[in-house]
């Protein structure tokens, strides 16, 4: 019997860009791999619904937009705001060891702060920054990340 493949995405989205990217990436992967199971965990929804954090059973990829408090990202402006629930979810139980890496997103207008939180998570938890994209991401970003997903999960 063919083994059913499952990929898992953990993310947060406050203004909908990351949500859009994860949805379009999922659609793209499903078209290329019919029958693929895609698990998505939106940490904002867990918190909003008062759902307790849990341990992921499947290896997962984290999608993380950047929200920092002011500054320039060099000698200040490296304080994460609004997305810290994702760090708490990753720190929960064995989740960090199941995270294959983080895809950061942001806006290049923020210069040195561009996708800084993804880099900070990589340092803190010891998994790689797999890719980055701006805002909702273009089709090229979807294709690039889909190829990374295919390689990591050997689809
Ligand atoms: C208050 C605020 C602070 C932000 N800070 C940064 C930043 O420091 N670096 C960066 O690359 N993008 C920054 N952004 C851009 C967001 O990361 C970007 O819009 C992202 O696509 C938002 O994702 P979401 O819609 O899924 O929440 C900031 C946006 C806002 C509204």
Could you walk me through the main structural features you see in this protein, from its secondary elements to its overall organization?
It holds the Pfam family Flavodoxin_NdrI. Residues 7-155 form the Flavodoxin-like domain. This is Putative NrdI-like protein. The chain has six helices and five strands, in the order E-H-E-H-E-H-H-E-H-E-H. Strands 2-1-3-4-5 form a five-stranded parallel β-sheet, with helices on both faces. The chain is globular. The two termini are 16 Å apart. With 155 residues, the chain is an alpha/beta fold. Helix 1 (17-32) links the parallel strand 1 and strand 2 (37-42). It has a single domain, classed as 3-Layer(aba) Sandwich (Rossmann fold), CATH 3.40.50. The protein has helices at residues 17-32, 43-48, 84-91, 95-98, 116-125, 139-153; strands spanning 6-11, 37-42, 60-65, 99-106, 129-134. Bound molecules: flavin mononucleotide. Flavin mononucleotide binds next to helix 1 and strand 4.
Quick tags:
single chain, 155 residues, alpha/beta, Rossmann fold, five-stranded parallel beta sheet, 6 helices, 5 strands, binds flavin mononucleotide
At a glance:
This protein is of the alpha/beta class and 155 residues long. The chain has six helices and five strands.
Helix and strand arrangement:
Blueprint: E1 6-11, H1 17-32, E2 37-42, H2 43-48, E3 60-65, H3 84-91, H4 95-98, E4 99-106, H5 116-125, E5 129-134, H6 139-153
Parallel strand pairs: 1-2, 1-3, 3-4, 4-5
The chain binds flavin mononucleotide.
Overall structural domain count: 1
- Sequence of strands across the biggest β-sheet: 2-1-3-4-5
- Mean pLDDT across all residues, rounded? 95
In CATH, what is the class?
Alpha Beta
Strand content bin: 15-25%
